[in-house]
Amino acid sequence: MKRANTGMRFFGGALVGAANGLLGGGGGMLAVPLLQAGGLPAKRAHATAISVILPASAVSGIVYLIFGFTPMRILVPVALGVAAGGYLGAKLLGVLPVRLVTAVFAALMLLAGWRMLL
């Protein structure tokens, strides 16, 4: 595995957190390639990205709540759905082939980018 120094990891984490906080998500789209560039295999990069996005999303969510950007009537059901989907996705990551995980991730990135352009 390639070794990245602590400063580079911190900088990469700050980029991921800023993207997540600014865009309301999407930090994982940066985290996965950065972690793979740092030497993690694809599945570990995905799992690590999910793990580091949780605290970033929690901090962003608290700030959004404090400033009134998040209606509670929407937050609660969506959060429950995200928790259920996250559990299912984590279970699937352990059994799906790495090529499929990578292909699905790439397809979602392309679809999200295309949707944003339109």
Topology of this protein?
Layout: H1 6-23, H2 27-37, H3 42-66, H4 72-93, H5 98-117
Task: Explain what this protein looks like in three dimensions.
By secondary structure, this protein is an all-alpha fold. The chain has one domain (6-117). It has five helices and no strands. The chain has helices at 6-23, 27-37, 42-66, 72-93, 98-117. The mean pLDDT is 85.
User: In the residues, how many domains can be counted?
Assistant: 1
- The 3D shape can be described as globular
- State the oligomer: single chain
Radius of gyration: 15 Å
Mean pLDDT: 85
Helix content: over 70%
Secondary structure tally: strands: 0
List keywords for this structure.
0% strand
Q: What's a concise summary of this model?
A:
This protein is mainly α. It contains five helices and no strands. The mean pLDDT is 85.
